[in-house]
Amino acid sequence: MVKTTPSKALIIRFNLVCLSIFLSVYATLLLRPPSPVYFNNAASLVRCSLHECHDKEEKSIKMKAVLEEAQVKPESPKKHKTKIKMPSFFSEIGKGMKIGMVNMDEYDVSEWSTNGETTPIYFEKVSHFFNWTDLFPEWIDEEEESDVASCPEIPMPEFAQYESMDVIVAKLPCMYPKEGWGRNVFRLQVHLIAANLAVKKGKKDWKWKTKVVLWSKCRPMMELFRCNDLVKHEGDWWYYEADVKRLEQKVSLPVGSCTLALPLWEQGIDKVYDLSKIKRSVTSMSKAKHEAYATVLHSSDGYVCGAITLAQSLLQTGTKRDLILLIDTSISTAKRRALATAGWKIRFISRIRNPRAKNGTYNEYNYTKFRLWQLTDYNKIIFIDADIIVLRNLDILFHFPQMSAVGNDQSIFNSGVMVIEPSNCTFQVLMDLRDDVVSYNGGDQGFLNEIFVWWHRLPRRVNFLKNFWANTTLEARVKNGLFGSDPPKLYAIHYLGLKPWHCYRDYDCNWDIEDQRVYASDVAHQRWWKLHDGMHERLKSMCRLTKKRRIELNWDRMKAGKLGLPDEHWKINITDPRKSGSLLMD
Ligand SMILES: *[C@@H]1O[C@H](CO)[C@@H](O)[C@H](O)[C@H]1NC(C)=O
Ligand SMILES: *[C@@H]1O[C@H](CO)[C@@H](O)[C@H](O)[C@H]1NC(C)=O
Ligand SMILES: *[C@@H]1O[C@H](CO)[C@@H](O)[C@H](O)[C@H]1NC(C)=O
Ligand SMILES: *[C@@H]1O[C@H](CO)[C@@H](O)[C@H](O)[C@H]1NC(C)=O
Ligand SMILES: *[C@@H]1O[C@H](CO)[C@@H](O)[C@H](O)[C@H]1NC(C)=O
Ligand SMILES: *[C@@H]1O[C@H](CO)[C@@H](O)[C@H](O)[C@H]1NC(C)=O
C-alpha cells in the first residue's frame, strides 16, 4: 500500500493537528495497517479507452500492415533438417490413412508413408514484420465512430485444393523459454492452419471428433486444442481427438482481438454472425442447465456486500442460469446466509496458496480462482468479479468459447468478466504452472493472460471499467453519460479503485485519495447505490461500514481537506445514515 506524501512539512503539521484532536482514535492508524480496500485492483493498469487517445496509434498500425504486404520475402530453404521420430503410437491410430502434413520438412515425412499417403500442406509463412500487437491491439474502434476495425490477414493454405484427411500432423514452433515465446505469430499461424484443416478436411468419427497429431516442445495452445481432447502425450508428441463443433466455432471467430468477437448488439446483424441463431442457442433450456454465472470470495469478507449486490443485479436481468459462489471459511455463517438469500448457490472451496508468495501477503492465496475450472458439472461459466454490477442481460455470452473477455491494456484482457470452460485437466495445467508463470502484476489477471494468450474480444460495455485514464473533460462526459444512462447502455460496470460500499453514499470516496482519483465517478457511484436501495433490508445490512473503515474514511476526508483537493468533495456534509455508530458492523 503506497500513499503519496506531498511534503514533510505538510505531513508534520497535518499529523500534529490530527493527533491533538483524535489522538486516541488515530494512534493505531498513523501506521495504517494494510487494509484490503486499498489494494489496487489487478485492473489498475488500464489505459485510455477513448478514441481520442488512440487515433495516431491506430493509423500507424494500418500503415504498417500496408507496408508489410510489399515486404513479404520468400522463405529461404532450410539448410539443416532434423529428423523427427514418428510417435510409437502412430500405427495404432490407423493404417492406409490419408495424412496431412503441416510445417513438416520433406525429410521428416518419408518414414510416415508406411502408415499411409502423406500430403504436404503448402502455405506462405507469416511475415517477420507481423507482430502480436497487430493481432491484439490495445484499442479498437468498437463503436465504429470513425473506422471499422479489421484484422490483418494471416496466410492460410488453399484448403479447397486438398481432399479429406484421416489425420492432420503438424510441427508447432516453440521458442520457449525465450521471452515472449507465447505471443509468437508464426506459432499461432501453424496452430490455426492445423485447426482449420481439422475442421474443413478432417474426417469425423461418430462422436464428431477428428484426429490431430502435433509435435511441439511446449504444450500446444489450449485455446485451440482443448486439454480434454488430448488422448496421448509421448515425448514431444501430442495426440488429440478434437471436438469438431467447438473447433469450428473458434476458427470462425476473428484471428485476434483486432475486431470484436461479437458485434455490438445495437448495430444490426453482422454478415459473419447470425445473431438470431445465437439467440436461439442461448435460450435453449437444456444447455442453460449446464451454464452458470460465478464469482469467488476468499481470505476476507470485504467483498460480501459486493457479491450480494452482484447477485441481485444478475437476477434483475431475468437470467435463468445458476449463480454459483465459491467461498472459503473466512465468511461467517450470518454472511453466508445473506449471500444465499441474495441468490447465490454456495460451494465451499479450500484456498490455493501461491507457492512463491511471501507468507501473510494480501495475494498469498491469489490462485484460488483456479477452482472455477473445477466446476465440471457446468460446461460453461461466466465469471464476474464481485466489484461489478450487471445492468443488462449477459446470457448471450454463454455462446462464446473460453477465453472471451474485454480488453485491458496492451494485448491483455481484463479478468473481471470471463467466459471459461471448466475442466479438471485445465485446472491441473494451471496448478502445474504455478511455479513457472510470472504474472506481470502479481494478480490472477497476469497469470491467466500468460495461459490464454489467444482470446476473443467482447465489447467493453460488457465489463465497463470505471476509470478515467485520459483525465480529460471529454472522457469524463462520455463515460459518465454511459454510467448514468437509463435505460442502461452498459451491460456491466466494473468498480475499480475503492468500492462504493466502502465509501459514504454521499460521494465516490476515490476523490479523497490522490492516487485513486482516476477511479472517481459520482455518477457511477450513484448507480451502485440505486441498486443497493432496491435490496431487502437484510441484504442492505451487509453493506454497512466497519468501525475501522469509518475511521479510514474520515481520515481520508480530512487529509483531502488539508491538501485542498480542488474537487472539494471533502467539503460535502455526510448525510449517509451508515456513519451513525449504531449502524456499524463488525
Ligand atoms: C511490434 O510492432 C510495434 C508497432 O509497430 C512495435 O512498437 C513493436 O516494437 C513491435 N514488436 C516487436 C517485438 O517487434
Ligand atoms: C509463515 O512462515 C513461517 C516460517 O517460514 C512459518 O513458521 C509459519 O507457519 C508461516 N505461516 C503461515 C500462516 O503459513
Ligand atoms: C473432476 O474431478 C472431480 C474430483 O476431483 C470429480 O468429482 C469430477 O467428476 C471430475 N469431472 C469430470 C468431468 O471428470
Ligand atoms: C500472487 O502473488 C504473488 C506475490 O505474493 C505473485 O508473485 C504471483 O505472481 C501472484 N499470482 C498470480 C496468479 O498472479
Ligand atoms: C488531471 O488533470 C488535472 C488538470 O488538467 C491535473 O491537475 C491533474 O493532476 C490530472 N490528474 C492526473 C491523475 O493526471
Ligand atoms: C455542513 O454542515 C455545517 C454545519 O452543520 C454547515 O455549517 C455547512 O453550511 C454545511 N455545508 C454544506 C455544504 O451544506
Architecture overview:
It is built from 17 helices and 16 strands. It is of the alpha/beta class and 586 residues long. Helix 10 runs parallel beside helix 11 (333-342). The chain is elongated, with a radius of gyration of 27 Å. The model is unreliable at 1-8, 14-44, 56-60, 66-77 and 268-272 (pLDDT under 50). One 2-acetamido-2-deoxy-beta-D-glucopyranose is lined by residues 376, 424. GO terms for molecular function: glycosyltransferase activity; metal ion binding. One of its GO terms (biological process) is cell wall organization. It comes from Lupinus luteus (European yellow lupine).
> What is the number of helical segments per DSSP (H or I, 4+ residues)?
17
The CATH class designation of one domain is: Alpha Beta
Strand percentage lies at: 5-15%
Mean pLDDT over the full residue set: 86
Strand order of the largest sheet: 9-8-7-10-13-12-14
Helix content: 25-40%
How many β-strand stretches?
16
GO molecular function, one term: glycosyltransferase activity
Subcellular location: Golgi apparatus membrane
Membrane topology: Single-pass type II membrane protein
Organism: Lupinus luteus
